[in-house]
UniProtKB/TrEMBL annotation:
Record's keyword terms, sorted: 4Fe-4S, Electron transport, Iron, Iron-sulfur, Membrane, Metal-binding, Transmembrane, Transmembrane helix, Transport
Domain of life: Bacteria
Alphabetical list of InterPro entries matching this protein: 4Fe4S_Fe-S-bd, 4Fe4S_Fe_S_CS, Cyt_c_oxidase_cbb3_FixG, Electron_Trans/Redox, FixG_C, Ig-like_fold
Listed NCBIfam families: ccoG_rdxA_fixG
Record organism: Cupriavidus basilensis
Domain 4Fe-4S ferredoxin-type span(s) in chain numbering: 274-302
Bilayer-spanning residue ranges: 55-73, 102-123, 176-193, 213-230, 358-377
PROSITE patterns: 4FE4S_FER_1 (PS00198), 4FE4S_FER_2 (PS51379)
Annotated region described as Disordered, given as residue ranges: 1-27
Presence of the UniProt keyword Electron transport in the record: yes
SUPFAM superfamilies: 4Fe-4S ferredoxins
Protein name (database record): Cytochrome c oxidase accessory protein CcoG
Pfam families: Fer4_18, Fer4_5, FixG_C
Length: 499
């Protein structure tokens, strides 16, 4: 006898929808649209307190302290974190990155993606529930909404009431606060790409440029719209993470889970009633877990792709269990295998270490280690050699063969640098380098293009192409703790055949 197919861990929208009888085709287009598209039902999340709620509050505070505060922090007389697109320089504390350092951005994106995979394989959508910007700003906007309009039932009544002076005042107050936060968020966002103190002066003097104005208002509008109106719609329909999370979790992943065996059959009862004698489970069917859910799902129906793993239902259910004098944990963070096999918490945690998480961890550690080592060993001087294509080789003063190059020198540090340029070759004897020595001094974080003439005596230069090595040396400064650098690059020296 064949075993039944296991139920999918994360239910899709089709699996969650109730089975309906197939109706006959209807010619009315409006009726057909109603069967294709779900009309949005506005969600009024109820406030809740508890351990997971406190975690969300702390993470909101930490992430926004970083986001709003970082542009105002100074480092070496400049903004500590500034992505100056006009100057093509990224300043991150003492690190200055140039367009040539795009590999670091690529590695950082790979590390971020792998971190998301690892955290999801261990404990589901932790990022969505606690650190995602959509979740963070929705929490901020809902906090304002609760303090202005009241908690869940007060907001429902207010929206159902006809327009009045009180309703207009409350709605205007709420949206005014939302718009102020959205504008400040847009201003801060642009402040990462344009010095924020100068940006603030331009805002006050109404002299913002067109692109600064556009991005500030665009980001503010997105913040206001996404966090104030769309909310769970972004998580359910716009975020791709919800769609492919099922391939990153398995039956040993810790997720928000309802204990069906303990909770069913559910039903209301008095506090003094014995649930065993009444033939009931621990679930009193109060639906508070649904009322506090920011996406409006019922976790008792099983894990769904709409669940962002915020743990609000856990806090709410624990409070109900305390009032009923039942043990906590009817809804809790655990794995599906732990729930079905009645595994202890210790055994369930041990099962988090499995091939998938081990492979993710090893790759993540290797990438992070390589990233840190590469940054630590990063050469402070960058050199690019460009041949002068206008003259491949020429005779000078009747005794020299000369090739002209352009050396692009980049000082990636925030300290002045003195360089020296020389060339050598195993094939050519008597090689000499001439250039303007006033270019020996490179200003901090500067980029300079230096014409360089490389000469070889005619008698030692055979016709054809010869390999030479150009060496650029940067002197160090022991007093500043700055080591020197030496860059060697190979290029070709051409001796024309008609000479």
């Amino acid at each position: 006898m064949n075993a039944p197919e296991p139920e999918p861990l994360v239910r899709t929208a089709a699996a969650q929808a109730p089975q309906r009888k197939r109706a006959a085709p209807v010619a009315d287009a409006e009726t057909s649209d109603e069967t294709l598209y779900e009309v949005r039902r506005k969600i009024y999340p109820r406030s809740v307190t508890g351990a997971f709620s406190r975690w969300r509050v702390w993470l909101v505070l930490l992430t926004q302290l970083f986001f709003y505060g970082m542009p105002w922090l100074n480092w070496n007389g400049r903004q500590a974190m500034l992505f100056d697109l006009g100057a093509r320089k990224f300043y991150i504390f003492g690190l200055v990155l140039w367009p040539q350092d795009v590999i670091y951005l690529a590695v950082l994106l790979v590390i971020s993606a792998l971190s998301l995979f690892l955290f999801t394989a261990i404990a589901g959508r932790l990022f969505c529930g606690y650190a995602c910007p959509q979740t963070v700003y929705t929490e901020i906007f809902m906090w304002i909404e609760r303090h202005v309009e009241g908690d869940r039932f007060a907001r429902i009544r207010l929206d159902g009431d006809p327009w009045s002076a009180r309703k207009l005042r409350l709605k205007a107050t709420k949206h005014s606060l939302w718009i102020l936060i959205a504008l400040w968020t847009g201003f801060t966002f642009v402040g990462y790409f344009s010095p924020i103190r100068e940006l603030g002066g331009e805002v006050l003097s109404l002299s913002l440029g067109p692109w600064q104005t556009f991005w500030m208002l665009f980001y503010a509008f997105c913040t206001w719209g996404n966090a104030g109106f769309m909310r769970e719609q972004v998580c359910k329909y716009m975020c791709p993470y919800a769609r492919f999370q099922s391939v990153m979790v398995d039956r040993d992943t810790y997720v928000v889970t309802y204990d069906v065996g303990r909770g069913e059959p559910r039903g209301s009862r008095s506090r003094k009633a014995d649930p065993t004698a009444a033939g009931l489970g621990s679930c009193v069917n109060c639906s508070i877990c649904v009322q506090v859910c920011p996406t409006g799902i019922d976790i008792r129906d099983g894990l769904q792709y709409d669940c962002i793993g915020c743990g609000a239902c856990i806090d709410a259910c624990d409070q109900v269990m305390d009032k009923m004098s039942y043990p906590r944990g009817l809804i809790r963070y655990t794995s599906e295998n732990a729930m079905r096999r009645a595994l202890s918490a210790t055994v369930a945690r041990k099962r988090l270490i499995r091939p998938r998480t081990v492979v993710y961890s090893v790759i993540w550690l290797a990438l992070v280690g390589g990233f840190v080592v590469s940054l630590a060993m990063r050469t402070p001087l960058k050199v690019d050699i460009i041949r002068d294509r206008g003259a491949l080789g020429r005779e000078v003063e009747g005794r020299w063969i000369e090739n002209v190059y352009r050396l692009q020198l980049i000082n990636t540090t925030e300290a002045p640098m003195r360089v020296a340029i020389r060339a050598n070759s195993d094939e050519l004897k008597g090689i000499a380098v001439e250039y303007d020595h006033s270019a020996d001094d490179l200003a901090p974080t500067s980029n300079r293009l230096i014409p360089v003439r490389v000469r070889v005596p005619i008698e030692s230069a055979g016709q054809g192409t010869h390999k030479i090595e150009v060496t650029v040396t940067a002197a160090g400064n022991e007093a500043e703790g700055r080591s020197g650098a030496e860059i060697r690059q190979s290029t070709s020296f051409i001796v024309p055949r008609n000479l």
